[in-house]
UniProtKB/TrEMBL annotation:
The chain crosses the membrane at residues 26-47, 71-88, 109-134. Its main location: membrane. SUPFAM superfamilies: Fumarate reductase respiratory complex transmembrane subunits (SSF81343). Keywords: Heme, Iron, Membrane, Metal-binding, Transmembrane, Transmembrane helix. The keyword Membrane applies. It comes from Gulosibacter molinativorax. The keyword Metal-binding applies. It comes from the Bacteria. This is Succinate dehydrogenase. It is found in: Membrane.
Length: 148
């Protein structure tokens, strides 16, 4: 088993290998920026849902779909929270895979699977948000409306 040598961290930029974009640096920066944004997004989300108004007792289908998602601001807020959280988590898992999977084949397969799962979850989550924003009253089994 061979492990690629890692450059000495204090190697001057002029001596480092340049191979286009530095994806590791972009990923590192994204994790820091998205982490700070996620803290803000999550705490405002929790406050608006659990503290403001009637508190926990207000949480229900009618509140989330009819009241909250009728305001485009909260729809965008929750969509941003969903997308950032999934990409942040997937990038963290990618880092773990890079650290512990040494063979290039399995590493590439795992990372590809991670990103495919991330994209599928983002698409499904956004579909749910959009569907409930456009048509909040869904017909249940036996043509009974959930909103009635």
């Amino acid at each position: 088993m061979t492990i690629e040598a890692v450059e000495y961290p204090r190697t001057p930029l002029s001596e480092r290998k340049q191979s286009g974009k530095n994806w590791e640096r972009i990923g590192w920066s994204f994790m820091r920026i998205s982490g700070v944004l996620l803290i803000f997004l999550v705490f405002v989300h929790l406050y608006s849902n659990l503290v403001a108004g009637d508190g926990v007792s207000q949480i229900g289908f009618e509140f989330v779909v009819a009241e909250k998602f009728s305001v485009p601001f909260w729809l965008i807020w929750d969509a941003l929270l969903l997308v950032l959280a999934l990409i942040h988590g997937t990038n963290g898992m990618r880092t773990i895979v890079n650290d512990y999977v040494y063979k290039p084949g399995p590493r590439k397969a795992l990372i590809t699977t991670l990103w495919i799962a991330c994209i599928v979850e983002i698409v499904l989550g956004l579909i749910v948000l959009i569907v409930f924003a456009v048509e909040p009253c869904v017909q249940g089994p036996g043509s009974a409306s959930i909103c009635s």
